[in-house]
Each structure stands twice: as C-alpha cells, then as structure tokens.
Amino acid sequence: MNTDNWKYFYKIVDGRPNTTNLLYTPLINETEDVMCMLWDENSLYQENTRLTADLVNFFFEREIKYLTTFQGKAWAPKLLEVDLQNRKIFIEWNKETLNTIIFTPGRNLDKECPDWKEQIFEMLRDILDSGYYKMALYPHCFFIDTKGTIKTFDLYSAIERNNPYIERRLIEGMIGEQSTGRFDDSTSDGVINFETFFKITLTDHLSKTWPDNPFPDFYKRLIHD
C-alpha cells in the first residue's frame, strides 16, 4: 500500500494532540479504515530521541509475531499486509481509539459502548487463557470496529506467561518517564519480570487514564490474588 497521502494519528493528552507511542509512527488512510504502523527510528513524528534501529526492529518483529499469533480472535484487528523492506504493518482500523472518546468533551464511553468493561475483561481473560500477558492497556491501544467490537493493537507488548522475562538493556530506549517506576519495581539483576509488571499495570498504573478505572477489579478476577 502507498502511504504518501496518509495522515498521522494522535492521542489526546491534557486536551491536546500528542504522539501515541514511543516506537512507531501511526498513519491513517483517507477513508480511516486502515492503519499503517511505520517502524522508522528517524520519523519526524517521533519524539523519542533514544530510538535506534535495533530497538525498533526488536519491537517490529514482536508486533508481527503477536498479530499473527492472535489472528482469528474477535478482539484482534485483521492483519492486512506486512512490508518487511519498509517496516510497515497494515491493520484494519475505524477512525479513532477509545482515548479519543474518553477525552473529547461531550462524549461518553459508557454511552457509546455500554459493555466496554465486559468486552475488555473478556479480552484480557482470553489473552491470559491463551498463555500470554499484554502490557499496553492505555485507552489509545483500543478501538471499536464497525460492528461494535473492541479491538486492541500494540501487541508487541505481549509476552508468554511461562517465560515473562526480557533483559532491560534490550528495551531501555522505549521506557517513558511516566513508566520508569513500574519498570524499576519489576526489574531484578537487569531482567524485567513482566508478570510483576502486569500486576503493577492493572492494580495501579492505569488509574488516571480510564473512567471509573476497572482494572484493579479485573486483576482480582483474572488472577484471584
């Protein structure tokens, strides 16, 4: 697919548009039904000055791996195309993320998608039952498709439950300022335990990003802690 005329996609932070992540550039086509994840460490969209080719490639390969792994799941966006040479991943899209709904004055997620909590809980349960955790759980990591089904992307953040470890040095360049604490609390001897990270994310970290934050309750129901 030719993305020359595609536009950048942003999330809303404090009422203003902001880049959505620290790894790839999201591009949306004119009909707003396809997203291109452009994995380019030199992209003008990116505000992360610590990106390197090795870091971007590491997560580009993970996104492909887990999008492929979860194809067929009701909550997984359809993988449309992968351009390995230009490091582009194309997925189905539908105009906006849940972040847009939550942080746009006059809009209400409960009204626009009354069962959003149930959908996301069942999604998380399915991911765990399939043998994985997913760490990227901000509202801008989800969208509602044309049939009212919530789907999630940024699947580079998935990790196997039976081996939830990554050397921190491999991903240090994508750790944002607001996430440093939970990475520190999950790191021992230079290795991040993402089972611990997942617990911190659900029980504490998401409180300012979701209305009536349901994730601590989700964790109790999912893990029986």
User: What do the pLDDT scores average to?
Assistant: 95
- Rg for CA atoms: 17 Å
Low-confidence stretches: none
Going by helix content, strand content and strand pairing, the class is: alpha+beta
Query: And the CATH topology?
Result: Transferase(Phosphotransferase), domain 1
The order of strands across the largest sheet is: 1-4-5-7-6
How many strands? 14
Q: What can be said about the biggest beta sheet? A: 5 strands, antiparallel
Series of H and E elements = EEEEEHEEHHHEEEEEHEEHH
Separation of termini? 46 Å
Describe this structure in words.
By secondary structure, this protein is α+β, with helices and mostly antiparallel strands. The protein has one domain: Transferase(Phosphotransferase), domain 1 (Orthogonal Bundle). Helix content is 30%, strand content 21%. It contains seven helices and 14 strands. It has helices at 53-69, 98-103, 109-112, 116-129, 180-185, 194-205, 215-223, and strands spanning 7-8, 11-13, 16-18, 25-28, 34-38, 79-83, 88-92, 132-134, 142-144, 150-152, 158-160, 165-167, 187-188, 191-193. The strands form five sheets. It has a five-stranded antiparallel β-sheet with strand order 1-4-5-7-6, with helices on one face. It has a three-stranded antiparallel β-sheet with strand order 12-14-13. A hairpin with a 2-residue loop joins strand 13 (187-188) and strand 14 (191-193). The longest helix has 17 residues, at 53-69. It starts with 6 loop residues before the first strand and ends with a helix. The mean pLDDT is 95.
